[in-house]
UniProtKB/TrEMBL annotation:
Designated name of the protein: YigZ family protein
Domain Impact N-terminal: 19-123
InterPro entries in the cross-refs: EFG_III/V (IPR035647), Impact (IPR023582), Impact_N (IPR001498), Impact_N_sf (IPR036956), Impact_YigZ-like (IPR015796), Ribosomal_Su5_D2-typ_SF (IPR020568), UPF0029_Impact_C (IPR015269)
Organism: Lacticaseibacillus jixianensis
Domain called UPF0029: residue spans: 140-195
Pfam families, per the entry: DUF1949, Impact_N
Protein family: Belongs to the IMPACT family.
Length: 212
């Protein structure tokens, strides 16, 4: 899992009429090729009378899986422009399908490229973009005499306590960005003179919506 990357906040859709052709683009976050194929199938089923369904998707922190299909449009005028638009936005783990109802007026290669690329841009704007941050869970076993000092330190560093268990000692669970895990662990150990040593747990993704 990458320390952080950008993906869609949720599924979204946008529609535009260009020279009597209707372009409807749907986008969605995905985590597997099965999810991508299921999403594409749902969009096709929702528009059975459309002229074209142009699907693209990318998977992985490094986009090691990339798929694009022109679905009958002239080669290079539909799927590739959509895929390139998602790449230029810096998005990952995303699928898009642009459905076209042909209106009788040909757009030409340049017009098609602009239409399909623009359809993705509009749909992504409707869905929203989030930053996915890899968060490292940590468990802290805290003696009561250290509790107030430690919780004050956590508050000062804007670290939220996600769980707590008060027994003979207090067990606290926190989550911090993976890039900050080492300095946070060192800071807690220094603050408590070695009485509290964070135990590292799994990495979990957290979506942070970006301002539009």
């Amino acid at each position: 899992m990458a320390a952080e990357y950008f993906t869609l906040t949720q599924a979204g859709q946008a529609e535009e009429i260009i020279k009597k052709s209707r372009f409807v683009c749907a986008v969605a976050p995905i985590r597997s090729e099965d999810e991508a194929q299921a999403f594409i199938a749902r969009i096709r089923a929702a528009h059975p009378k459309a002229t074209h369904h142009v699907p693209v998707y990318m998977l992985g922190d490094d986009d090691h899986i990339q798929r694009a299909n022109d679905d009958g449009e002239p080669s290079g005028t539909a799927g590739v422009p959509m895929l390139r638009t998602l790449q230029e936005m810096g998005l990952h783990d995303v699928a898009a399908v642009t459905t076209r109802y042909f209106g009788g007026i040909k757009l030409g290669a340049g017009g098609l490229i602009r239409a399909y690329a623009g359809s993705v841009t509009a749909a992504v704007q409707a869905a929203g973009i989030s930053r996915r941050v890899a968060m490292r869970q940590m468990t802290l076993t805290v003696p009561y005499p250290q509790l107030d000092r430690l919780t004050h330190w956590l508050e000062g560093h804007h670290i939220t306590i996600s769980a707590s268990d008060y027994q003979a000692v207090v067990a606290l669970t926190i989550a911090v960005p993976e890039t900050e895990a080492d300095p946070v662990a060192a800071g807690i150990t220094e603050l408590t003179a070695g009485q509290v040593t964070p135990t590292r747990g799994p990495l979990t993704p957290l979506l942070v919506p970006q301002a539009r």
